[in-house]
Amino acid sequence: MAVRDGSGQCNATVRPVWPKFWVGIALQIRSRMSRQSTRERLEPVLDPAEERLTSRAVLGATIGNILEFYDFGTYSFFAIQIGQAFFPATDSFASLMLSLATFGVGFVTRPIGAIVLGSYSDRAGRRPAMTASFTMMSAAVLLLAITPSYETIGLAAPSLVVFARLLQGFALGGEVGPTTAYLMEAAPAEARGLAVSFQPASQQIAATAGALVGEILSLTMTSEALNAYGWRIALLLGAATLPFGLWLRSVLPETLHRPEAPVLVTEPGGQSRADRRIMCLGFVILASCTITTYVTGYMTTYAMNTLHVSAPVAFGTTLISNAVGIAAALLGGLLADRAGRRLIMIWPQVTALLMTYPVFLWIAESRSAFALLGGLGALTLIGTIPYSAFYVSMAEGLPRNIRGGAFATIYAFAIVVFGGTAQPIVTWLIHLTGSALVPAWYMLFASAAGLFAMLMMPETAPLNFRPKNDPS
């Protein structure tokens, strides 16, 4: 039997030739030298025995993720106001489209940031890559918040905004991979699922925070004030927390060289092939997750434009789905630690697949608040659980030396290809067919593809913490 160590290499079992006494002496000397060299380093390194550092590490990675996704999403919420400030046009529609096009520019640089910062995290460490990503995001947010309007500095205003969006996209592209790898490596083996689940949960928290800030500002400010400077307040609220986030990340302990629990390799000598297989399956699953997430985020527009429900009910769908998504993401990670990765990926995905069409049929026919909020909430609850298990499964399945870069790159390309096109495709298909069930069919297609890939994913839970009935 071959076992993969933390560096991703396959090592055959070799009989020790030294007497046990001398082996013990050698291990003690090496342990003392390792502790001494660690104390002499300037960088803090995570000690497996210091579990209190695990909590701080998870908090630091999660807070940074929340702040970055909040800043990235706030632009989307205030797209109309930003368009009026930086992209004046002959009509409001043209101004909005220019603003949305600038928002889309941020997706272009995501894969570049994923490749550059992700691979950097595999060479230099998770902490330097996360700190660099957060620093670039901080600069982009401040630039966007303080840039004068088009009326003040002319063409320089939209040019600076486009540059800020490119920098934001680059930084965010390099955020997810190193952060996910860090969360997995910082956690004890029996709690990896819960730790990594803070990655998708933090994105939901950021979306909820951005929506709440936007809602509060829109209710407390006049439309003139909101258009003039309200959106700047929302961005500066996020920027106010940036010094704390930078400090927190700068003192995080490093995890790149931390020992890991062994993972079984089913094909000795075929590690490269196994890595490519996991990356291909991961791309399909992330594409499925991206489509489901973006279609769910489209439900506010869908409820108002297609179902013609009231605005409060329509906006309530976003808050309900985000709140349920936070709880479901954490629940998925917790269950993955108890029952293994594959079971928690597969069975909730099957359930969500069977629920999707009946739920949307109920919503489309009744067009009631209870159907919209209750049905979508239940679907979000079940449908989010498998992806938390997948996050930790893919992070565990990738060798340490490519984990950050591979995860970041696959995630970024899935977002660019399927996230940026999901809502336009659904809108176009609804217009083409006139059917209110288009989101259901699109989500069914994505969920089926994701389920097919999940069925081929290996069990990656550490050998010592797998369920007793796990056959692998």
UniProtKB/TrEMBL annotation:
Record bears the keyword Transport:
yes
One GO cellular component term, please give it.
plasma membrane
Which segments constitute the Major facilitator superfamily (MFS) profile domain? 57-461
In which domain of life is the source organism classified? Bacteria
Keyword Membrane in annotation: yes
Topology in membrane: Multi-pass membrane protein
Q: Which GO terms describe its molecular function?
A: symporter activity
Give the family from UniProt. Answer: Belongs to the major facilitator superfamily. Metabolite:H+ Symporter (MHS) family (TC 2.A.1.6) family.
In Swiss-Prot or TrEMBL terms, this protein is called MFS transporter
